[in-house]
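lol forgot to send this yesterday, sorry. C-alpha coordinates for the thing we talked abt
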Protein backbone atom coordinates (compact mmCIF):
# COMPACT_ATOMS: atom_id res chain seq x y z
CA UNK A 1 0.00 0.00 0.00
CA UNK A 2 1.85 3.06 -1.23
CA UNK A 3 -0.51 5.68 0.12
CA UNK A 4 -2.97 5.28 2.98
CA UNK A 5 -6.19 7.25 3.21
CA UNK A 6 -8.93 7.41 5.80
CA UNK A 7 -11.21 5.55 3.37
CA UNK A 8 -8.84 2.56 3.53
CA UNK A 9 -9.24 2.45 7.30
CA UNK A 10 -12.96 3.25 7.65
CA UNK A 11 -13.86 -0.26 6.52
CA UNK A 12 -11.97 -1.59 9.54
CA UNK A 13 -13.02 1.10 12.08
CA UNK A 14 -16.26 2.70 10.80
CA UNK A 15 -16.32 5.67 13.18
CA UNK A 16 -13.80 8.28 11.98
CA UNK A 17 -13.40 9.70 15.46
CA UNK A 18 -12.52 6.25 16.84
CA UNK A 19 -10.16 5.76 13.93
CA UNK A 20 -8.23 8.95 14.65
CA UNK A 21 -8.10 8.34 18.40
CA UNK A 22 -6.96 4.72 17.99
CA UNK A 23 -4.39 5.62 15.33
CA UNK A 24 -3.02 8.31 17.66
CA UNK A 25 -2.77 5.73 20.47
CA UNK A 26 -0.90 3.36 18.16
CA UNK A 27 1.42 6.21 17.10
CA UNK A 28 2.18 6.85 20.81
CA UNK A 29 2.95 3.16 21.25
CA UNK A 30 5.34 3.29 18.30
CA UNK A 31 7.04 6.37 19.76
CA UNK A 32 7.40 4.46 23.04
CA UNK A 33 9.22 1.65 21.25
CA UNK A 34 6.49 -0.83 20.30
CA UNK A 35 7.51 -3.02 17.36
CA UNK A 36 6.12 -2.12 13.94
CA UNK A 37 3.84 -4.59 12.19
CA UNK A 38 4.41 -3.07 8.73
CA UNK A 39 7.48 -1.61 7.03
CA UNK A 40 8.11 2.04 7.88
CA UNK A 41 8.92 3.07 4.26
CA UNK A 42 10.17 6.46 5.48
CA UNK A 43 6.71 7.32 6.88
CA UNK A 44 6.05 9.14 10.11
CA UNK A 45 4.45 7.36 13.08
CA UNK A 46 0.83 8.52 12.48
CA UNK A 47 0.98 7.30 8.87
CA UNK A 48 2.53 4.00 9.94
CA UNK A 49 -0.25 3.53 12.51
CA UNK A 50 -2.93 4.18 9.86
CA UNK A 51 -1.21 1.71 7.52
CA UNK A 52 -1.25 -0.88 10.30
CA UNK A 53 -4.99 -0.35 10.79
CA UNK A 54 -5.67 -0.54 7.04
CA UNK A 55 -3.67 -3.79 6.73
CA UNK A 56 -5.41 -5.23 9.83
CA UNK A 57 -2.06 -5.94 11.47
CA UNK A 58 -3.15 -4.38 14.78
CA UNK A 59 -6.22 -5.26 16.82
CA UNK A 60 -8.54 -2.23 17.27
CA UNK A 61 -9.93 -3.68 20.53
CA UNK A 62 -6.40 -4.06 21.93
CA UNK A 63 -5.75 -0.41 21.05
CA UNK A 64 -8.98 0.61 22.83
CA UNK A 65 -8.01 -1.37 25.92
CA UNK A 66 -4.53 0.14 25.91
CA UNK A 67 -5.93 3.64 25.57
CA UNK A 68 -8.44 3.12 28.40
CA UNK A 69 -5.72 1.74 30.66
CA UNK A 70 -3.44 4.64 29.78
CA UNK A 71 -6.02 7.32 30.62
CA UNK A 72 -7.81 5.63 33.51
CA UNK A 73 -7.38 7.54 36.76
CA UNK A 74 -8.49 4.66 39.02
CA UNK A 75 -6.22 1.81 38.08
CA UNK A 76 -7.35 -1.67 39.00
CA UNK A 77 -4.95 -3.25 41.47
CA UNK A 78 -3.58 -6.76 41.46
CA UNK A 79 -4.50 -8.82 44.55
CA UNK A 80 -1.06 -8.22 46.11
CA UNK A 81 -1.32 -4.48 45.43
CA UNK A 82 -4.83 -4.47 46.91
CA UNK A 83 -3.50 -6.10 50.10
CA UNK A 84 -0.77 -3.48 50.34
CA UNK A 85 -3.26 -0.63 49.79
CA UNK A 86 -5.51 -2.02 52.55
CA UNK A 87 -2.53 -2.38 54.87
CA UNK A 88 -1.41 1.22 54.25
CA UNK A 89 -4.94 2.52 54.79
CA UNK A 90 -5.01 0.72 58.15
CA UNK A 91 -1.62 2.19 59.07
CA UNK A 92 -2.91 5.66 58.23
CA UNK A 93 -5.92 5.17 60.53
CA UNK A 94 -3.63 4.08 63.37
CA UNK A 95 -1.39 7.12 62.83
CA UNK A 96 -4.38 9.46 62.80
CA UNK A 97 -5.70 7.99 66.07
CA UNK A 98 -2.26 8.21 67.68
CA UNK A 99 -1.86 11.86 66.72
CA UNK A 100 -5.37 12.69 67.92
CA UNK A 101 -4.68 11.07 71.32
CA UNK A 102 -1.40 12.98 71.78
CA UNK A 103 -3.01 16.37 71.39
CA UNK A 104 -6.04 15.82 73.62
CA UNK A 105 -6.06 18.26 76.55
CA UNK A 106 -3.37 20.55 75.19
CA UNK A 107 -4.23 24.22 75.16
CA UNK A 108 -4.34 25.77 71.77
CA UNK A 109 -2.14 28.82 71.37
CA UNK A 110 -3.92 32.15 71.22
CA UNK A 111 -3.30 34.66 68.51
CA UNK A 112 -2.50 37.45 70.98
CA UNK A 113 0.96 37.40 72.45
CA UNK A 114 1.90 39.62 75.35
CA UNK A 115 5.42 40.91 75.14
CA UNK A 116 6.97 42.58 78.12
CA UNK A 117 9.61 45.13 77.18
CA UNK A 118 12.19 46.05 79.78
CA UNK A 119 14.15 49.24 79.87
CA UNK A 120 17.08 49.27 77.48
CA UNK A 121 20.29 48.40 79.15
CA UNK A 122 23.66 49.03 77.68
CA UNK A 123 26.40 46.56 78.02
CA UNK A 124 29.69 48.18 78.84
CA UNK A 125 31.39 49.24 75.60
CA UNK A 126 28.29 48.91 73.40
CA UNK A 127 25.88 51.57 72.28
CA UNK A 128 22.14 51.07 71.87
CA UNK A 129 20.59 51.87 68.55
CA UNK A 130 18.21 54.81 68.58
CA UNK A 131 16.71 55.73 65.20
CA UNK A 132 15.79 59.22 66.43
CA UNK A 133 19.40 60.19 67.01
CA UNK A 134 20.74 58.76 63.75
CA UNK A 135 21.02 61.31 61.12
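and heres what i got for the seq, position by position
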Amino acid sequence: MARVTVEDCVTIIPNRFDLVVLAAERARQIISGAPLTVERENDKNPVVSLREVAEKSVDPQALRDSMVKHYRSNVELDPSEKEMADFLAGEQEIADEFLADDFVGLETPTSEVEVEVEDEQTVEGEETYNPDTEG
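The mean pLDDT is 79. anyway ping me if u want another try
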